[in-house]
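dumping this here before i forget
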Amino acid sequence: MNKTMMEILACPIDKNHPLELFEINQKENVVIEGAIFCPKCTRFYPIMEEIPIMLPDDLRDKKHEMEFLNKNKDNLPEKIITKANPWHL
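structure:
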């Protein structure tokens, strides 16, 4: 995901803007892996293989996202790992 996309992205749940970006792996101006966080509703949205997964809760893949959280628990802030919606560790 190109970092400039953060200027236009809003939370799909509450339409909040701006969102917070946490980068785990990046190359130049592209986030390869990371997370987007909505401070209003405390939801996180993973960025995997350069793609932000910003779906409503009922369309999200809990198993896949829990694997993402477990894999990146040392690289993301506590507010995502232990407190974020719709799930956390």
